[in-house]
Amino acid sequence: MEQWLSVPKVELHAHLNGSVRDSTLLELARVLGEKGVIDFSDVEHVIMKDDRSLHEVFKLFDLIHILTTDHKIITRITKEVVEDFASENVVYLELRTTPKKNDSIGMTKRSYMEAVVEGLKAVNAVDINFMPHDADAGDFMDSQHIKSGTCNGATRKKIYVRLLLSIDRRETTEAAMETVKLALELRPIGVVGIDLSGNPIVGEWSTFFPALKFAREQGLYITLHCGEIPNPKEIQAMLDFLPQRIGHACCFEEEEWKKLKSLKIPVEICLTSNIRTDTISSLDVHHFANLYNVKHPLILCTDDAGVFSTSLCGEYSIAASAYGLGRREIYQLAKDAVEFVFADDEVKKDLREIFNSAAKMLDFLF
Ligand code: 6MZ
After folding, report:
1. pLDDT tens-digit series, residues 87-97
2. CATH fourth-level superfamily of 2-365
3. Is 268 close to ligand 1, i.e. is its CB under 6 Å away?
4. Catalytic positions, written as ranges
5. What's CA 16's distance to the chain center, in Å?
C-alpha cells in the first residue's frame, strides 16, 4: 500500500459522516454514554463491527448521525476528514454531505453547512483551497481562506476541496428543493453539485426528479447513486437524466450496461464498500474489470472510509492486486480522474501539472 502513497490521488465519492475516524466516533460515543444518552458498550460493538449488510450500514448511519449532531462536531469531523485524505496524498477531494435540520439544537440546513465550512477553514495540516478563484463569498468568509504556497520556506502540501450537497432518499420533493437552493446559495464557497444518496430501498425517482432537474438547469453538477440494488426502471430513468457521473452501478443488466457505455457516463467505483455490503459477491465478478478493459471512464473512490475501514491508497492497492494493474496503470487511473472532477478548468489544469510533476519524481514510472 505504501507505494500508492507517493501517487497523487483524486477522491470523488466520499460521504462526510461515513469518513469519520473510528477513534473520533468512539470518543463521541463515550461522551454520550457518560451523559446517559446512549449505552456505550452496545454502540462500541456496532462501530467496531467489520462486515455489515447494506441494510445494517444505514442503521449505522443513523447512529453516527446521533453522535455527530451538533455544529462543533460537524466542524471537527470535516477538518479531520480533509486532513486524513490529504495525509494519503489526495490532492483534490470532492466531499459530499447531507445538510441536516435539527430544531432541538437550532440547526438548519444552512447552519449545518456553515459548520462544514468552519471545518474547512480550520484545516491546518495542509494548505487548502476550497473556493473557486472568481468567488465572492460575501458574509460567509471574514477573510480570504485560500492559503498559498510556503511555510518556513518549504513548499507545503496542498489539497483542493469542493463540496457536493446530498439529497437523502428519505426526503420529500420540498426538502430536496431546499437543499438545491442552498447549494446555489453556497456556490461561492465551493459547492459544485448535488448527489442523490441514502438507502436505495427507500423513496421514488419521481420525488427527487424536480429538484435534480432544477439543479441541472441552474448549472450545478449532478451525481447519482445508481443501481445499488436491482431496480431497472429507476436505473433507466437515471441514465436518461444524463447525470455527469454515477456512483456504484452494481446491479445493472445487459441493457443498462449497453446504455451506460454508449452514454460514456463516468462511474465512481467503491470496491471495498460493494464487497463489505455484499452488493457484489467478490472482486472477481466486480464490474471494475469489464469497465476498465473497455476503457469506460471510472474513478476509484472510498465511499465511507470510516465505516468500511478503508482509505484511497487501500482502494488502489486492492485494484492493483485484484486486477493485475502495474504501477503505470495505477498512476494513469489516478491521473484520468482529473478529467471527471466538478471543478473549473483552472483547477483541472493545476491538477494535471501536479500529476505531471509527480511523474518526474516517481522513478517507478521509468
Ligand atoms: C447510499 C450512502 C452510502 O451525508 O451524513 N451514504 N448512500 N449508499 C451508500 N453506500 C454504502 N454511504 C453513505 O453521510 C452519510 C450519509 O451518506 C449516505 C447516506 O445517506 C448516509 O446517511 P452524510 O455526511
Report:
1. 999 999 999 99
2. Metal-dependent hydrolases (3.20.20.140)
3. no
4. 228
5. 7
